[in-house]
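Before our next group meeting I need something from you. Please put the record directly below this note.
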Amino acid sequence: MLQLKDVRKVYEGKARVVALDGVTLSIGAGEMVAVMGPSGSGKSTLLNLVGGLDVPTAGALLVAGEDLARKSEEERSLFRRTHVSYVFQAYHLMPTLSAAQNVELPLHLAGRPEGEARERALKTLGEVGLSGRTTHLPDELSGGERQRVAIARALVTGAPLLLADEPTGNLDTAKGEEILQLLKSIHEARGTTIVMVTHDQHAAAACERVVKFRDGRVVEDSRG
């Protein structure tokens, strides 16, 4: 699913920052991988690159067999719609839209008919245990429920790659555990490739593999 070979990402400015410094990493289709490391280690840069939000300064980067470094910004945007989905720590739900409407959004962007979008949104909300909360606004939902809506929105397109950035960071221990178990069940049922950035050792332990970064380099790659 992901192949990085000697990938470098350098930000030029008043201070030159080497965010990734020769990263070689392969993640197979259907893996669930935690990415860990201190702030500034390159974790977020990695997500931005494999999600097509940015391109490497040097090196080879293949996602689902596509060389994102050679695609234009528009081509990468189209690629993301069908191949990549995101779950964030802060949910990023539209506050004036219901749970179902939030989940429908990526399907509308992809040009799906309204009826199909609603049907798929309701089905996916059922998968994450929110069949009874489809008409609720985000501020009428708990933190754990909001994250479930965000996960449903990520799943509804059927994208084979899910990138999760600190998905349990805003939740208490019990709700965080529920989200981890949900991600694991999705991974097992759908075969979705999940790459999760986390500072939480417990969250990382839920994954099959842990990749640790420091100073823009991979310093450890271990399987559970």
Q: What stands out?
A: Residues 186 and 192 are 7 Å apart (CA to CA). Strands lie at 2-11, 17-27, 32-36, 58-63, 66-67, 84-88, 161-165, 193-197, 209-214, 217-223. The two ends are 20 Å apart (CA to CA). The chain has one domain: 2-223.
